[in-house]
């Protein structure tokens, strides 16, 4: 019988890698359209670019997708006016 190694730390690393990539791209997407994308628009964009969905990003962030986007917009505007 072959034992399959289930390395949770490796899975966690992969999830966090996709999470960071998705957050980076979400911030860039928000900057480009200068508005909060709808969940449907983001999900379509995410599938096309192999990113996490709005539901997954919201869950992992602990804020929810719309609240996270609002916080990003606030941070973007704050940094632009310094």
Plain-language structure description:
With 82 residues, the protein is mostly helical. It has a domain at 34-82. Helices cover 74% and strands 0% of the residues. It contains four helices and no strands. It has helices at residues 8-33, 39-49, 54-61, 65-80. The chain is globular and about 40 Å long. Mean pLDDT is 87; it is low at 1-6.
Whole-angstrom Rg: 15 Å
Shape category: globular
Major beta sheet, specifics? Answer: none
Note the run of SSEs as H and E.
HHHH
Low-confidence stretches: 1-6
Instruction: Look at the structure and give the mean pLDDT.
Output: 87
End-to-end span in angstroms?
Answer: 62 Å
Number of DSSP strand runs: 0
Counting DSSP H or I runs of 4 or more residues, the number of helices is 4
Q: Can you tag this structure with a few keywords?
A:
82 residues; mainly alpha
